[in-house]
Amino acid sequence: GQTIEFPFSQSDACKDWGVHCPVAKASHQEFKLKMPVESSYPKVKLHIRVGLEDANGKLLICQEIPAEIK
Fold first, then answer.
1. Which residues is 10 bridged to in the sheet?
2. Alpha-carbon gap, residue 48 to 66, rounded angstroms
3. Long-range contacts of 56-64 (CB under 8 A, 24+ apart)
4. Residue 22: is the preceding peptide bond cis (ω within 30°)?
């Protein structure tokens, strides 16, 4: 499928998402992201890929989540 970038207006996980920084290796962190779903979006099943980078742009985690727009 096609990948579409969806930048978050609040993109600092430490300040905006409740992540406890610095992130320790093998630590457990939980956070919630909210995304607007416009009525013009098609009704589809999709996968949402969320990545978290450190201040230097190094990828810390990448998670793919199944979702559906109804």
1. none
2. 6
3. 60/23
4. yes
Judge whether residue 53 has pLDDT over 80.
yes
Rounded Cα distance between 22 and 47, Å, is 28
Residue the block writes with tokens 């093998």: 26
Q: How far is the first Cα of the chain from the last one, in angstroms, to the nearest whole number?
A: 19
Q: What is the mean pLDDT of residues 14-24?
A: 85
% of the chain exceeding 90 in pLDDT? 4
| 46-69 average pLDDT score | 87
**Whole-structure pTM value:** 0.61
Quick count: other Cβ atoms within 10 Å of Cβ 13?
A: 21
CA distance 66 to 46: 6
